[in-house]
Known about the structure:
The structure is a single chain. By secondary structure, the chain is of the alpha/beta class. It is built from ten helices and 18 strands. The strands form four sheets. A six-stranded mixed sheet has the order 7-8-9-4-10-11, with helices on both faces. Strands 1, 2, 3, 5 and 6 form a five-stranded antiparallel sheet that branches. A five-stranded mixed sheet has the order 15-14-16-17-18, with helices on one face. Strand 5 and strand 6 (74-75) form a beta hairpin. It is elongated and about 85 Å long. The N and C termini lie far apart (55 Å). The mean pLDDT is 88.
Amino acid sequence: MGDQLPVLHTENLSVGYRGARESSGTVFGGITVDARRSELVALFGPNGIGKSTLLRSIVRLLSPLSGNIYLSGSDIRSYPANQIARMVGFVSTEPVRVNNLKVRDLVSLGRYPHTGWLGRLGEQDYIKVDEALDMVGISRLAGKNIDQLSDGERQRAMIARTLAQDTGIIVLDEPTAFLDLPNKYGIVHLLHRLAAEKGRTIIFSTHDLSIAIQEATKIWLMLPGQICQGAPEDLILDDQFGRMFENTNLSFSTGKGEFRIKRELREIIGLRGPATERRWTRNALERNGFRVAENEECGATVSIDIEGGTRTWKLMMQGSTSRFTSIYDLCSCLTSAGAKAF
């Protein structure tokens, strides 16, 4: 798992805003978490709880209201700004909209902490830029303008810029917020690989719990009044995710590792068949308000058969049998039949 000593550690940290602004005051307090070398840490929690405020405090864009942040064992306040820029890189949540700026030029901006006050790139700087482009797989796009890229390519360019900054810690605020599903998984898997193969400590906030569970080494889970941390599997077994929405219509399944809508289930339907088909049939039946008893026979029972590559759903109810070639047709029949059929 890399070095055992934390690269980043917070101790009883309170984050928020100072001054006369309406949002001034503490946003979240009592934050004690850590991150180690080669870890991919996902920050997860409900909207408005303070994820962005915490990340901006870690990269020193905001000053902590109280408590401490330690980088490599030393208080973050002991480092001058130019040294912080060599230790921590930050990718903001805002999408980049820049015309007439080539990808290579954008990535080159990441070298600013290393170029001195003249801002001139040397041979080593160009090597770092090329390495960063290669690491995120966009070397072929180096000569294209930023405004010609897709959202996924643009996000990879932003990550490359931060990699060119050559920091041990990389912090990203919602890096997948504007991406479609394949690009969401692609970006987070890229972050996982960079942490594991390049020894970076990468911390990112996200609302995509399923991706975090699959890819993150550790999750920082922000709950009202408390933050906890651990491997995704530890938090699942301790039912920590279920606490997020205790007073809502959502529940968390520790067996499936996913949130589900709480439904009022009515009539019981027995269900038998192969595991995969049974799982998705159950999903559809519960969505339509039926309580499922797997591998049991009830007043209404569905059995799934596969013959010659063709699936058949057989519904036995009130002494009659109906056959369907899709879950859609099965559910349409059940819902149109209504409670009278049971």
